[in-house]
């Protein structure tokens, strides 16, 4: 007598794991909730900011946002925004930005950032330093205990002239933090071993630290005093809020006096 078997039980429902890109998109969409019609918006650069630019364009197409003017922080973002039909301007015509939204490579507990691993730190800093509000959008992997703490690059933009001299001076400046400096190379595709060249026709020197840098403002001043240095990727005190998307949900950290509502 064959044993009667009922229909196979359905497989247990499994939570779909969020990818890092999903988290970036969640943070980006949350930030775009703060974009209002008529605003001048700083458009960041990188894989997280790209989602924010996409979302702004979508809301414009749907008529849910009107009269937005975007100020892009790189040629890459400029091209993306043009392709999506976002009206654009620059700081010459719009010296004050209502809201800037951008990703970051590191966020420390005081909301100081490292930016520029995508190479756009100079234009990002120019735009974000004149923003009334600067919302940083990250997935939780970007949180660090201190600036440089990821042991990944802290970029410095330098003029091409005698770049190896600038590299040695930067290493010497941060000798106390066990700094190793490297000239950034272009991606292999088409670039070979050529140096990476920024939108502003400069080079990038990436700094890697073994230990904490110490006082960030002093470090910033010292770097900017070196002739040949254009700017660095430390964004000190510029972020007004940070939206962090993690597998357990979204967290918002704000600088005092810059509360944003969820
Ligand atoms: C580009 C940047 C980016 O904002 C930063 O590198 C983060 O990029 P992503 O969102 O792709 O992780 O500073 O210069």
Summarize the structure.
The protein is an alpha/beta fold and 262 residues long. Helices cover 27% and strands 23% of the residues.
List the main descriptive attributes of the protein structure presented here:
six-stranded mixed beta sheet, binds ribulose-5-phosphate, alpha/beta, 7 helices, globular, 262 residues, four-stranded antiparallel beta sheet
Q: Kindly report how far apart the N and C termini lie.
A: 64 Å
Task: Please count the helical segments.
Answer: 7
The largest sheet is: 6 strands, mixed
What is the subunit organization of this protein? single chain
Tell me the strand percentage band. 15-25%
What is the element string, with H for helices and E for strands? HEHEHEEEHEEHEHEHEEEE
Structure description:
It is a single chain. The protein has 262 residues and is an alpha/beta fold. It contains 7 helices and 13 strands. A 6-stranded mixed beta sheet has the order 2-1-3-6-12-13. The protein has a 4-stranded antiparallel beta sheet with strand order 8-9-7-10, with helices on one face. Strands 4-5-11 form a 3-stranded antiparallel beta sheet, with no helix packed on it. Strand 1, helix 2 and strand 2 form a beta-alpha-beta unit. Helix 1 crosses helix 2 and helix 2 runs parallel beside helix 3. The model has no long low-confidence stretch (mean pLDDT 92). The site of ribulose-5-phosphate (5RP) has 18 residues, from helix 2 and helix 4.
């Amino acid at each position: 007598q064959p044993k009667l078997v009922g229909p196979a039980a359905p497989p247990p429902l499994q939570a779909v794991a969020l990818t890092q890109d999903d988290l970036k998109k969640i943070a980006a969409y949350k930030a775009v909730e703060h974009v209002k019609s008529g605003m001048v918006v700083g458009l960041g650069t990188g894989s997280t900011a790209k989602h924010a630019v996409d979302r702004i364009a979508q809301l414009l197409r749907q008529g849910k946002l009107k009269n937005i003017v975007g100020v892009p922080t790189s040629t890459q973002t400029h091209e993306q925004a043009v392709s999506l039909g976002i009206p654009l301007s620059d700081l010459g015509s719009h010296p004050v930005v209502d809201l800037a939204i951008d990703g970051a490579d590191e966020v420390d507990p005081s909301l100081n950032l490292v930016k520029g691993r995508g190479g756009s730190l100079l234009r990002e800093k120019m735009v974000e330093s004149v923003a009334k509000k600067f919302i940083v959008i990250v997935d939780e992997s970007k949180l660090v205990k201190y600036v440089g703490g990821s042991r990944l690059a802290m970029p410095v933009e330098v003029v091409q002239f005698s770049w190896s001299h600038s590299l040695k001076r930067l290493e010497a400046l941060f000798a106390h933090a066990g700094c190793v400096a490297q000239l950034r190379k272009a991606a292999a595709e088409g670039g070979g071993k050529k140096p990476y060249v920024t939108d502003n026709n400069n080079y990038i020197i990436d700094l890697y630290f073994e230990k904490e840098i110490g006082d960030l403002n002093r470090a910033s001043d010292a770097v900017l005093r070196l002739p040949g240095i254009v700017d660095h990727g430390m964004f000190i005190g510029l972020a007004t809020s940070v939206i962090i998307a993690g597998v357990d949900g979204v967290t918002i950290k704000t600088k005092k006096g810059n509360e944003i509502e969820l």
